[in-house]
Predict the structure.
Amino acid sequence: MRLKTQFIITIFLFGLVLVVMATSAIITNHQVKKTGQQERMASHIAQGANELSYLANDYLIYRESQQLKRWQSRFAAFTAQVAALRTDRPEQQALVANLRANQNRFKEVFDSAAAALENPSRDLPSSLAPAFFQTSWSRLAVQSQGLVADASRLSQLLRQEMDRLTETRTRLMYGIVGLFGLFLLVSYRLTYRRILKSIGTLRSGTAVVGSGNLDFIIAEQGHDEIGELSQSFNRMTADLKKITASKADLEKEITERQRAEEELRESETKYRNLFENMAEEVHFWRLVRDEAGRIKTWRLVDANPPTLQTWGRTSLDEIQGKTTDEIFGPGSTDHYLPVVEKIMTEGLPYAFEDYFPNLDRYFRFTSVPLGDYFITTGADITGIKKAEEALKRAHDELEVRVQERTAELARSNMELTIEIAERQRTEQALQESKEQLRSLAFQILSAQEEERKRIALEVHDVLGSSLSAIKFKAEETLHHLPKDGPANIFKPLETLVALIQDMIGEARRIQADLRPPLLDDLGIVATLSWFCRRFGTIYSGIKCEPAVTLREEAIPDQLKIALFRITQEAMNNIGKHALADSVLLDLRKVDGA
């Protein structure tokens, strides 16, 4: 198969697989976005169920038409959100069906309660009877909890599905990257085996032919383009054999060789000058082996002037061609034999240090192998070694001083430990005092809240009841007056009824400020939601958004009134002093607190 055809087939196969995987990744990414939208919608539905429950409770307590309109508006938005849910899996579809059924039941329960409140034929007092209030609130709470549970479960299932789809998308992306890497590897293998390797064989053959061996035949591998090129070179070699070199070509070759020899002599002179003018020792050795090929010794081939000066020689002729035993005395070869065997075996440069007692000097040597030769350079490091010895002595002296200082620090540490123990006892006494003060403050707060609660009940039971009775009597009197009576009688009575209604609202506000009834009836979660709505009514230019995610039973009872008072004070400060246009009221549990 020709190289071009094989390369096109490889690109086509890899491209086809890559397109399939990329399409799968795009589809999976679309599914991830769709599932994410559905999951956020389920979360909003759970939040909307809580809001509907709070609005229904407010209406059951205060029975105001504005609260009923808010509930109906929020329920319409909630119904639209539930209707927009679109799921594919059976378990998710079952949860959506439950949501829609619970939504309808929730509306039926609220409508029945609202109809009972608005039906004038029903014999109910001005405030809901406790049994009717508890029954309606319980039924609404059951339906609300069902909606929240189903929406939360649906949100969890959608989040799990989104995680699975995200993992699948990630695997597809890794698969695409891996496929691309595999394509590069296959392309490299194809290029190396079928092209580069063949070209390398062809280049080696042309080098042999270029050296003058016109009888050499290049191997013709395969029937591709490289094989055709090999055939062309073989034909060219056969044609060259028929041609005889001319005299001009021979003279040109001789001239080129003479020029190369001249350049070689110039290079040799340059490196010879460098060799002799180096400040470090440089000596060149040739190995001497025994019959088994093992290194027996080595002889000096050349050495520069610094080497002769260090060795105490006046000329190179005194030591050239001699072994180390002959130059430095018996045993010298055995001393350096492990080093020489190491550099010749590994074929790598090797650095080592040695001490010469007769000179009282240290040297650092570096040996480089060159076939059966090796070059060694040496540098005098006596000054460095003596500096290291001085540094070691200073280090030993410093160690002694450190030990002495450590003993002093140990004594100081003992004294500090005694002082710390005294401070700890003092801090413990302070902590006990703080606990007593905290307990006293809690008792004062509890007494204050009990007094607020008592006053709030007094306002509700005495002032509220009296005002309601006055209003009822005034309305009854106004109702029994003849329709055609004088206008000067109706107008004062109507003004009096409106004034009494304002006083009832003011009494409610005072009671809510002292002690909200929702705090004792429904708990802190409903109270905070009610307070946000009331804050928005008073400060219409500031939007208050509650974001309470805790359940009522998760909040300790002793903290509920403190949480409400903190919120009350902070929100009042915001309304009076902060130039804010929105407030986010968030209550959550972090690290168990």
